[in-house]
Amino acid sequence: MERMNVWNTYDLETKKACYAFAEQYRQFLTANKTERECIDTFVNEAEEAGFVELSRAIEEKRALKPGDGVYQVWMNKSIVLFRIGTEPMENGLNILGAHIDSPRMDVKQNPVYESDGYAYLDTHYYGGIKKYQFVALPLSLHGVVVKKSGETVILNVGEDEDDPVFFISDLLIHLAQDQMQKPAAKVIEGEALDLIVGNQPILITADTKPEKLAGADWSSIADSDKVDEADGKDDAGKAKDGVKAALLEILKQNYGIEEDDFASAELEIVPAGKARDAGFDRSMILGYGHDDRVCAYPSFRAILETGTPDRTCVCLLVDKEEIGSVGATGMQSRFFENALAEVMNLAGQYSDIAMRRTLAGSCMLSSDVSSAYDPHWAECFDTRNTAHLGKGMVFNKFTGSRGKSGSNDANAEYIAHLRSIFEKAGVTTQTAELGKVDVGGGGTIAYILALYGMNVIDSGVPVLNMHAPFEAISKADLYEAYRGYKAFLRDASMRG
Questions:
Q1: What is the pLDDT of residues 457-490, one digit of tens each?
Q2: 202, 210, 453, 475: which could join 360 in a potential S-S bond, CB 3.0 to 4.6 Å?
Q3: How far is CA 11 from the centre of its chain?
Q4: Which ranges of 271-324 does DSSP label H, i.e. alpha helix?
Q5: Could you give the CA distance from residue 228 to residue 294 in angstroms, rounded to a whole number?
Q6: Within 10 Å of residue 177's Cβ, how many Cβ atoms?
Q7: How far apart are CA 66 and CA 413, in angstroms?
Q8: Domains assigned to the chain
Q9: Distance CA 117, CA 114 (A)
Q10: pLDDT for 257-273, tens place per residue?
């Protein structure tokens, strides 16, 4: 069945609204490259929209009523927002769920070392990546260092125009004959993804003072200065591992960080630079982290813009999907279930059986990206059953791999209910699978929520270059997802 290109359905007013929403998203994507950064932005905007932190509502013993908005953050990396509806929660919730983590490199706990005049940060890649795509690129460093005192130091280096950037080196083509014969998975090994962060050694002299070591200009430390003959320095006055020493001094002077503070740090290495409009027509956005912030952002906006609904609405934005939804901030944890119990209690509706009925009677869109058809790799796709850029919001009845292994497989009755909702709202949709049978596969958080017995289907936005440093999406698909999420929160009502 041929799907219509969304752009052909837009009048001038709709196209302007699409571009305006896409610009807001593009700025969000540029400014929020980690889970913690997303959470900070979401909390600020939620509170501006009148949402109240759940812990505050509990402390005040606030009786929740229809139209109220509450949220809970978990470990600064996941968030759930509730908009209370007029119906009893036992009738079920309408849930939008997405994830806010993306593939990247994480800095190890004992990362700083020097090798042959380069200072490095040792890394461990996170999520499914083609490792060779992350070399020879400008990279930035984002995250937190929590000191033993409890002080949290926030790092975001490499994004401002005046910031330095970092990089991972690759072998020059002139010497790469053997490298070029390796399979793609072995061209760059995981342990080779170490970040180059410095090259200039510190020169220790009798006149060297700490304030002279801060910043990037080392010319003030003159070679002619008298050399301090303390242990660890050679005859030329150069410190042992002098480049590493220089790096640690910069970190100490500029951020108050000692080497052992890396043991309690969460630092992520991501591509540096802004998300950009792509194409002469500016119909696309190229940037890091579309998977899955391209679904998280419109989901968040949809619940903020939902008034007083019939069924209580939920926006669930979680961590750790890229590594199996594990851990305390992943979807497999109980933080959502616990938050729901507290919300039902404040609304005077909690009991164990009531919460079970609430979850089982819910409708969910597991909002995650789908692979977009790429004609350069047509052999990997079933063209009749794949998503296309510019053809609307995507629904995947099932994901998984091979014989649907690891899949949530949505009920036909639920899909029919959703088709009715989106047709009524004028939302352009398409259906897809993740590539040809037996070629590959993937999954989302859908199967985890389906364990409660609720209706769940995967939906979202098609992406080109998925899991690459720079992914591409269509602004029209983003806008249709935003419109679709709002319609779903307003109109979904199917139970069981």
A1: 999 999 999 999 999 999 999 999 999 999 999 9
A2: 453
A3: 32
A4: 290-304
A5: 56
A6: 9
A7: 29
A8: 6-102+288-491 (3.40.630.10), 104-271 (2.30.250.10)
A9: 7
A10: 999 999 999 999 999 99
